[in-house]
Structures are given as C-alpha cells and as structure tokens.
Amino acid sequence: LLYGFGGALALSLLPGRFGFLGAPLAIVLAIPYFLAGLAILHEVSRGRPLRRLALAAVYVVTVLALWPAAGFVALGVLEPWLHLRRRLGAGT
Known about the structure:
Strand content: under 5%
Helix content: over 70%
Number of helices: 5
Distance between the termini: 29 Å
Structural class: mainly alpha
Number of strands: 0
Radius of gyration: 15 Å
Largest sheet: none
Shape: elongated
C-alpha cells in the first residue's frame, strides 16, 4: 500500500492526465494512513483530562481546514517504523 500511495502521490505531481489520475488515487490510498494517524491521536489522548473536548476540537478543525489531515496521514505512514502509538501512549 505504501508503494502504491507513494506512486500515486508522485503521479499527482505530473501535469495533464497523469496528474488528474494520480490525485484522486492518492487520496483514496491515503485513507488507511489517515485512520492510523487518528488512532495515534486517540492513543495519545487516552487517560488525559478533557479528552473528549480535545478530540472534538481536533475533529472540527480537521473537517473545517482539511490541512491537519495531511499531518494524520504522515503520522500513519510513520507508525509502522516509529511505533508512535506505543511510544506516545498513556502507558497502557
């Protein structure tokens, strides 16, 4: 999946038909990484005070601005190598 996502991302940078095909393909292939990034956010917030409020705020900002989604995708891509959920978790 990572190679396909990287290839689609590279394809989306090309002009013309290739870029037109690569952009939506990259978005579709980024969804699992986005969800993995959200899982990291939920793990980090576990056991913290005001967790629901903080998560709600992050979700609202992500829906309204969309740029935080790129950060969650990046976290999801890095998760298999850095094990961020385990490192940043609340000790569970």
